[in-house]
Design brief:
single chain; 2 domains; mainly alpha; 172 residues; elongated
């Protein structure tokens, strides 16, 4: 989680430092690379953590909750970012690093994003994710197919290395 949060933080900082006269390679390319690293690591770890923390029967509910939370947080962040952008665009800086630069409003949004990710980097030490995955809990079989699969699993456990064919009845 720390690597993902740092990937986000560094990428937003690089985007914020980008000015109109800078090229693609010094800031944008490394920033785009690191933001993908951050997204890939954090999204996967968060989903695995939530799914593994819930009983098997409630994992789809947990997936819906994490997706809803992700969408709501994105919407709130977009609203705040729009407010920051509009405020800076209404009165652009007349001195400093971004004086006269058309990208000043975008830079302000990226500085806001870097500040939010800095907070998340600070919260990472308080996470206790642990190792995810491992042995699957047994689930009671459902229906004729589930019962046939359960019997096949039991027979396979009795005869190590032996493959068992499962026959199921087809409804007419």
């Amino acid at each position: 989680m720390l690597i993902g949060a740092l990937g986000y933080f560094v990428s937003f900082t690089l985007f914020a430092l980008q000015r109109t006269q800078n090229g693609y390679w010094p800031f944008l390319f490394p920033g785009l690379t690191l933001i993908v690293l951050g997204a890939d690591l954090q999204f996967n770890v968060a989903n695995m953590f939530v799914m593994s923390a819930m009983p098997l029967a409630q994992q789809s509910l947990a997936g819906g909750i994490i997706q809803t939370g992700t969408r709501l947080a994105g919407t709130i962040g977009l609203g705040i970012s729009t407010a920051v952008f509009n405020a800076v665009q209404a009165s652009p800086p007349s001195s400093g690093f971004y004086a006269g630069d058309e990208a000043a409003a975008y830079a302000a949004v990226f500085w806001f994003s870097a500040a939010i990710t800095a907070v998340s980097v600070g919260l990472v030490p308080f996470l206790r994710v642990g190792t995810q995955g491992g042995a699957v809990e047994s689930v009671p079989p459902v229906g004729a197919v589930g019962a046939a699969l359960a019997v096949a699993d039991e027979e396979k456990d009795r005869k190590p290395g032996a493959e068992v064919e499962v026959e199921t009845e087809r409804a007419a």
